[in-house]
């Protein structure tokens, strides 16, 4: 069963740059083709954070996430983004919530409390932390009995995430 994952920017950054639970989630997705929802606002924010915090620019996304691992889509419709913003304290979170709802993601994985507080009210979208994903073994069955090869993009020389 293929599931659609929507990963918040903080999860993607942590998973790409640090060793920790986010990387444990992302690595199997990179290799076993459960798609990650990918849209312009997410990519811009991700590029901005990687450049500002880690001086990483010009990331070749197709090499980081091989064919089939990103479901590249346009932004969710503006009226749905507006509705999502009304549900949130921080309007910057509107596009990811709207995209996850509109494209019917199975999971929105985030560390953002403003999104996590909505979890009990969502009817079909499961909003979870990375820890909840691993505790429920939602990502484990992807990697079961597979040796995951080294990722194409993993600056593992960086120290572990102190918040991870």
Keywords summarizing the entry:
single chain, 164 residues, mainly alpha, Rossmann fold, 3-stranded parallel beta sheet, two-stranded parallel sheet, 44% helix, 9% strand, disordered C terminus, PIN-like_dom_sf, PIN_dom
Can you summarize this structure?
The protein is mainly alpha-helical and 164 residues long.
Protein architecture, described:
It contains nine helices and five strands. It is mainly alpha-helical. It has a single domain (5-144), classed as Rossmann fold. The strands form two sheets. It has a three-stranded parallel beta sheet with strand order 1-4-5. A two-stranded parallel ribbon has the order 2-3. α7 links the parallel β4 (107-109) and β5. The two termini are 29 Å apart. InterPro entries: PIN-like_dom_sf, PIN_dom, PIN_toxin-like. Residues 6-114 form the PIN domain. This is PIN domain-containing protein. Pfam families: PIN_3 (PF13470).
SSE blueprint:
Layout lengths: L4 E3 L1 H9 L3 H12 L3 E3 L1 H15 L6 H4 L5 E3 L5 H9 L7 H9 L4 E3 L3 H4 L9 E3 L1 H6 L4 H4 L21
Parallel strand pairs: 1-4, 2-3, 4-5
Helix pairs in contact: 1-2, 1-3, 5-6
- What is the CATH fold-level name? Rossmann fold
CATH architectural category: 3-Layer(aba) Sandwich
SS summary, helix count: 9
Chain-averaged pLDDT: 82
Please report the total strand number as a whole number: 5
**Gyration radius, rounded:** 15 Å
Class by alpha and beta content: mainly alpha
Report the sheet with the most strands, covering strand number, pairing sense and barrel closure.
Answer: 3 strands, parallel
The coarse silhouette is globular
What count of structural domains? 1
* CATH class annotation: Alpha Beta
H and E order:
EHHEHHEHHEHEHH
Looking across the biggest beta sheet, what order are the strands in? 1-4-5
The share of residues in extended strands comes to 5-15%
Distance between the termini: 29 Å
Protein name: PIN domain-containing protein
Pfam families: PIN_3
Domain PIN: 6-114
């Amino acid at each position: 069963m293929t599931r659609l994952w929507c990963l918040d920017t903080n999860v993607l950054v942590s998973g790409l740059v640090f060793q920790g639970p986010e990387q444990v989630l992302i690595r199997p997705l990179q290799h076993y083709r459960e798609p990650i929802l990918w849209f312009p606002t997410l990519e811009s924010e991700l590029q901005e954070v990687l450049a500002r915090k880690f001086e990483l620019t010009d990331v070749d996304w197709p090499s980081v996430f091989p064919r089939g691992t990103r479901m590249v889509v346009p932004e969710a419709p503006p009226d749905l983004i507006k509705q999502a913003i009304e549900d949130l304290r921080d309007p910057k979170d509107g596009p990811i919530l709207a995209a996850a709802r509109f494209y019917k993601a199975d999971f929105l994985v985030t560390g953002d409390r403003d999104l996590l507080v909505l979890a009990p009210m969502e009817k079909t979208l499961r909003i979870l932390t990375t820890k909840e994903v691993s505790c429920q073994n939602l990502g484990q069955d992807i990697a079961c009995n597979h040796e995951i090869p080294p990722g194409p993009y993993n600056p593992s020389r960086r120290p572990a995430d102190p918040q991870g």
